[in-house]
Amino acid sequence: MDIRLARSTDAAAINELLDQLGYPQSDPATTAARIKTWTDDPDGAVYVADTEQGLLGVIAVHTCPFFERDGTWARIVALVVSDKARRQGVGSHLITAAESFATNHGCLRMEVTSATHRSQAHTFYESHGYTPTPTRFLHTLPH
User: What whole-number distance in Å separates Cα of residue 5 and Cα of residue 27?
Assistant: First the structure.
């Protein structure tokens, strides 16, 4: 397995992964454009788990400066492992890549959010040292 930065040519495979997570994508070209946006942003990265069987996972990580103190933190924006490869270490390798990216960017903390119904994901994150914090508020802005 090769953990590498995503390329625009990975868009169709990434769409399949996002669909498995419950986020169906309509167009690989749109996803390819998002990958390019992330590639051009030095504060973020998208990694994939590339194997002979194709892409088995994707993770997106982004850094942000703290406002209330010095330093930066990082957020896992998305993590998906193919349903045919779960519990085989793919997610752990992707987390390692994201945490390495964050560490190399001077981050002091990592954050990830996960829907309440994803109990297996919660167990996975906790096994990697992430502590649950239950309060999150969202507000959709008009567009």
Answer: 21
Cβ neighbours for 100, distance < 8 A, ≥ 6 positions apart? none
Q: Domain segments of the chain: what residues?
A: 2-128
Residues 6+ apart with CB under 8 A from 125: 112, 114, 132
2-128, what's its fold? Aminopeptidase (3.40.630)
Residue 8 has a CB neighbour count (10 Å cut-off) of 15
pLDDT tens digits for range 9-25:
999 999 999 999 889 99
Could you tell me which residues are beta bridge partners of residue 64? 73
Q: How far is CA 33 from CA 71, 72, 134, in A?
A: 30, 26, 33
Q: How large is the C-alpha radius of gyration of the chain?
A: 15
Whole-prediction pTM: 0.90
Helix (H) or strand (E) holding 93: helix 90-104
Distance CA 89, CA 8 (A): 25
Instruction: Write out pLDDT tens, residues 3-62.
Output: 999 999 999 999 999 999 889 998 999 999 999 999 999 999 999 999 998 999 999 999
d(CA 135, CA 48): 30
